[in-house]
chitin deacetylase (Mycena maculata), 424 residues
Amino acid sequence: MRSRNTCTSIGATLLLLAATGTRAQATDEASAAAITDPTTQCTPYGYAPIAASNTTGLWPTVWLPLTGIQPNDATAQAKYNSFSANIPDIAPQGTLGGSLNTAGYDGTTDPDCWWSVSQCTTPKVSGLNPDIAAVPEPRTLGYGFDDGPNCSHNAFYDYLTEQDQKATMFYIGSNVFDWPLQAQRAAADGHEICAHTWSHRNMTMFSNEGAFAELYYTLEAIKLVTGYTPQCWRPPFGDVDDRIRYIAAQLGLETIIWKYDSFDYTAAPLSQIQGNYDALIADVASGTFDTVGAIMLTHELNNFTMQLAVDNYPKLAAAFDYLVPISVAMNKTQPYVESNFSLPSFAEYTASRASTNSTGGSGSGSSSGSSSGSSSGAASGSTSTNATKSGASTGSSAGVALLPRTAVALTLALLGAALCLCSL
Ligand SMILES: *[C@@H]1O[C@H](CO)[C@@H](O)[C@H](O)[C@H]1NC(C)=O
Ligand SMILES: *[C@@H]1O[C@H](CO)[C@@H](O)[C@H](O)[C@H]1NC(C)=O
Ligand SMILES: *[C@@H]1O[C@H](CO)[C@@H](O)[C@H](O)[C@H]1NC(C)=O
Ligand SMILES: *[C@@H]1O[C@H](CO)[C@@H](O)[C@H](O)[C@H]1NC(C)=O
Ligand SMILES: *[C@@H]1O[C@H](CO)[C@@H](O)[C@H](O)[C@H]1NC(C)=O
Ligand SMILES: *[C@@H]1O[C@H](CO)[C@@H](O)[C@H](O)[C@H]1NC(C)=O
Ligand SMILES: *[C@@H]1O[C@H](CO)[C@@H](O)[C@H](O)[C@H]1NC(C)=O
Ligand SMILES: *[C@@H]1O[C@H](CO)[C@@H](O)[C@H](O)[C@H]1NC(C)=O
């Protein structure tokens, strides 16, 4: 005969199993996107395509600042070799692990167009495009978020979907590999994905090859996980000079920066950070953006920054005429190297929904026309009204593991309860 204690402990174990089963991570984008509990969202999970593609050590270690191309990565090496002789002869501005060395730099002549010193966005080296620091459309906000994908972003992305609002997401390569299903959600929801480097360090500190690797492996990570290769990037901390711009340009990347900073990522008091949002909003009213729109630095970093974005969305939408992904404001309808995803032009985006300042958000019917859900290859100018992620499958097809696992655990728990009843 089983003792009562044993019975209790079997029951507890089985209940724990049941709980674990209920909290199991999903294995595909749709089931991951449906998880509401942040702790469950942030429970690490494996993703077979990453492991399968790393048999030869092709991928760097996540969060490691990169000093160069992975050994034996002939493809990356060939790409780098194709332009390395022409990289502007500018020394790294400091050493990895240390701080930026601005002391000996002449910020007045600013020979390297080093943003960290001068906020320079017009390169001195010829042939480089100016950075995008504001969107050209008047009374328009280029709406974007840095540092994702954050594991717990479902409430935030749910909110954006409810508002029928797309944004530009600047994804860190290491976060993409840590949270691939979350990264897939951005693609499925029709957001625009840009690169935000592998390890999120100041880019001007890297060697030429290290800087290349930070961008190259981030693009490859986003491609592996979402199927898309971005053509835009944002330097962490805004730290870019003409050497880094040149390397980014060789990878087909436009540099996107900002003129307004929410400082939402700092430890500043909420009142101060809210004040930065309020100042931007006040500038709309005072006519600052009547000829050229705005870009503000905001983050998908953690619950604080995402909740702040949610809380401010109605105010931003009421103040600006339009909130759009940055490529939409640039009429860049093919944001990726691949042609099977298209964004609407600015005119298409704004025609397909009422001005944000008259509706304040959701319910206006047709959405912005992402075609991420269709995998048929039908591409440009799509005005599909079905931009929800329901039909989207951006890569993995591992299927539904959540339900069966929960069911098994619940069955076990019931079995345990029955066993205990019998033995008492
Ligand atoms: C890929 O493999 C290398 C070598 O085993 C390892 O150092 C690295 O951490 C792995 N990267 C990822 C993202 O799994
Ligand atoms: C990057 O440089 C800025 C100064 O421009 C500094 O505040 C920041 O801490 C640096 N970040 C890292 C990761 O070194
Ligand atoms: C993502 O957000 C959660 C919730 O705030 C936070 O605990 C976590 O540290 C964030 N992850 C990263 C990588 O910053
Ligand atoms: C922030 O956390 C609170 C408490 O867990 C939660 O109710 C809220 O939905 C979260 N906000 C976002 C945007 O994730
Ligand atoms: C939005 O509202 C402002 C006044 O607050 C007005 O000048 C502007 O024309 C409106 N935009 C649209 C597209 O309705
Ligand atoms: C985008 O297209 C509109 C016309 O639909 C035009 O007015 C605007 O100047 C274009 N913007 C850019 C950046 O090309
Ligand atoms: C888009 O096309 C690329 C190949 O060009 C493919 O790898 C990717 O899976 C496609 N993505 C979607 C969502 O169809
Ligand atoms: C949208 O989805 C519905 C069914 O969910 C379908 O009947 C309709 O044809 C779709 N519209 C477009 C434009 O794809």
User: Anything to note?
Assistant: Confidence is low (pLDDT under 50) at residues 1-22, 357-424. Residues 321, 355, 357-358 surround 2-acetamido-2-deoxy-beta-D-glucopyranose (ligand 5) (CB under 6 Å). The chain is about 40% helix and 5% strand.
